[in-house]
Design a protein that fits this description.
By secondary structure, this protein is mostly beta strands. The chain is 0% helix and 51% strand.
Length: 79
């Protein structure tokens, strides 16, 4: 398990943060909790087939009239 966290100093609707997998999870082996930012393994990982998992998590920070997108590149190396 891994957790990413973004913080907005606004409160209420304008301080809302959501997380999504943006790319790199073609085999649907991971899932991100959209509210908590927790990354979980959703399917078995086979080190013999794939040694490094690389994907992006997109963070949406909502504000008045727009939202900001931040992309985090993660490289998971299974040893």
């Amino acid at each position: 398990m891994l957790q990413v966290k973004a913080v907005d100093i606004d409160e209420g609707w304008n301080g809302r943060v959501e997380y999504r997998l943006a790319s790199g999870d073609d085999q649907h082996q991971f899932v991100v909790d959209s509210q908590l930012g927790t990354l979980l393994v959703a399917a078995p990982l086979d080190r013999e087939q794939v040694n490094i998992y690389s994907f992006c998590i997109r963070t949406c920070i909502f504000s008045v009239g727009h939202f900001l997108l931040f992309t985090l590149q993660l490289n998971l190396i299974k040893t």
